[in-house]
Amino acid sequence: MKIPALLKFVLLVVIAYLVFKAPALLMGKPIPASLAGVYLFFTVVVILLVMTSTDKGVSELTGPIYRVSFEPGLRPIRNVIVVALPIIAVAITYFSIAGGEVSSVKLRTAHPAPPETFAAYGKRVKTEKLTNPYRALEESDPRVFERAVKDGGKVYFKNCFFCHGAKLDGAGHYARALKNPLPQPFKGQDTIAQLSEAYLFWRITTGGPGLPAESAPWDSSMPAWESILSEDEIWKVILFVYDYTGNRPRSWE
Amino acid sequence: MKLYRKIILLAALLMASLSLALSGGSATAAGPESGKAIYVKRCAWCHGEDGAGDGPASEYLNPPPRDFTEVSYKYKSTPSEEMVPTDEDLLKVIRGRDFGNGEGHGAGWTASMPGFGDIVSDDDARKLIEYIKYISDITDEEVPASISLEGRIPSSEESIRTGKELFLAKDRCTECHGKLGRGDGRKRLKDDLGYRTWPRNLTKGFSFRGGNKPEDIYTRVTVGIPGTQMPSFADPASKRRLTEEERWHVANYVASLNKPYKKPGDFTAIHAIYLDGPLPGGPLDEGWSRAPYTSLHLFPQIIMETRLFTPSLDTLSVKAVYNEDALMILLEWDDRTLSDPDDKVSREIAGGAHYPDALAVEFPMANPSTGKSSTPPFFGEGDLEHQVNIWYWRGTEGVTEESGGGEVKLYNAAGITKRKERKPEMAGVTARGVYKDGTWRVVMKRPLRTDNPDTVIQFDATTTLPVAFALWDGSNLERGSKHVLTSWHKISFKQNSGYGRLIWPAVAGGFIIILELVWLRSGTDDRKTNDPLHKKP
Known about the structure:
The complex is a heterodimer of chains A (about 250) and B (about 525). Chain A is mostly helical. Chain A has helices at about 5-25, 35-50, 55-70, 75-100, 135-140, 140-160, 160-165, 195-205, 230-245, and strands at about 115-120, 125. Chain A has 2 domains: about 5-100, no CATH class; about 115-245, Orthogonal Bundle (Cytochrome Bc1 Complex, Chain D, domain 2). Helix content of chain A is about 55%, strand content about 5%. In chain A, strands 1-2 form a two-stranded antiparallel sheet. The longest helix of chain A is centred in the middle third of the chain and has 24 residues, at about 75-100. In chain B, a hairpin with a 3-residue loop joins strand 6 and strand 7. Chain B has 11 helices and 16 strands. In chain B, the strands form 2 sheets. In chain B, strands 3, 4, 5, 6, 7, 8, 9, 10, 11, 12, 13, 14, 15 and 16 form a 14-stranded mixed sheet that branches. A two-stranded antiparallel sheet of chain B has the order 1-2. Classes of the chains: A mainly alpha (about 250), B alpha+beta (about 525).
């Protein structure tokens, strides 16, 4: 049996839509809506190009629409469509507004460019020159290194895990009160794995108040830890977040 | 000589079997050891290296992490006289996704322990269970059967009514959970190790740590919560004992107490509803029923010293209404005590001296150049460049009267240390609060516009208004920097009642009709109908 061209077109678009939706439905990892929109647009364009490459193809595809528009015998269908379309449009618009306005999530840069220098513990430090004093021990003295990681864990679980989570996934037990922005997760490859230890040191010491304007410092609940933790504790907690998540810090190349 | 060798052989045999018995057999000996590595990596931070509930995080958690050496597992399904939980009970808590209200969290939505189901496989969880049982020294204990749920009585109006009578009778549940189940009983609670605990607020189903379905509640009522003062109501020795059937009625009643509006949503704006006429007269006025609740999470102030790690308040529900003249907001939250220093129950709950309950509502201050607030200040009392207005209210006098009471103050702040008190009259801020049956309802009101735009924000009903909140529970010894709060939320003004929301649907409908007219007209157009691709019918 031959599938009518218009139905074929609709089916192909639905299948394409489902393919782009599948990662979200099956794995819980959605393709960003804007990206999925672009993919779908090009897919539709290609389908149309192929289906309308001949005059026969065009008439097959547009035939049903043409007939509904002009054939006297199809007037009842035409009337139903004329009445139904505005009603559907009104209903969709009404319910999408009545569903309650959701405060828009502001665009903010989660990881702004670090400054060239910043002040911490009474000195001005060059971000580029900053290194974790414990990192070298990883090879030279693994046992001392391991102890430093463990100390870092203690700092983490006395100060950070309330928001950043016992699983380092940014979902601590107070995180749900901090929706905009959510606390950063450390597990996974898209946060600390992309950053240097110096960057983390800058973010931890200066906290929310040290963020540049594009990162909406007014919304951040991250304290400036300089006033609560020692320099040593911060370097150790940095060791811990990399060690626990199996990530490696980026180095300046 | 032969006898001598025989004795040696016998001794060796005895020694061997003894050591085998002590190690608990080779099969189980491997179990605890393989679980230990996972335990040290994932669990020891709270539950401690030796499982005594004394990890580095323990002193910052309330309730504290389980002490496995005490063998008091809170969320178990075995009869109350048995200490040993089933492996499934432990698996449920470790995975965290089996509870009806779990949302990825181990023992309920508000517990500090997350569910580990996403990073610990079921196989590893079983190894962990072996290790935890080894710490508790119950590896060789026989595992009792879970209590039966066979006698389940489906919820019905009659069952709920019977459950309510049993709930109230003999002060059975009310002593701790309060008359309306808001956790506002008269008893100061502590767990077996002496740590302070709070009775569950039964109107917040999402916060039930052992699940909020009737069968979960039935299990809690039957088994109790070991290690806490929640007893088993199946205990034959108890004066408040309930039969199996009665426990199902109570479970159905407790499940019916849930108020879904108290569960905070995601990113939801507070909708200020336009009233064509007078605003509600007070906190208990019927007029408030026209505005919807928006519930928000509260988190304890852990940003700067002195920090609060043991909060007692978790959510705040807000309503807002406005008319041509003024904006009025209602703040409603469940608080277990009135926190009146002269009140005996408050003193008992606080365990001595305490402070009045208090509330603060914060708005960014007007930006003099635009009259609007484009860049919000830091949510914690503003910053040097951006000031905030703070409306502060304290539950001092008259708060048990129907019309409400308390004292109101007005501040401008440019950071925590730069706070300046102003006269509330200069902005026309008024506030009144009522405490009744474990719930505070406070209304605050201010004219939309004031005479001094340089020092107070002007409300403009065509924009959204950033707002943040803070609460102090005086009987939890909260004052100063020790309190719970929210970050910025938004009040969105719903335009003049019904008609505003019809504009966009009307535009959409009209647009489609215009397109249709074009379409229908084309049917009469000769050039189009002579389309060579479509033969004219």
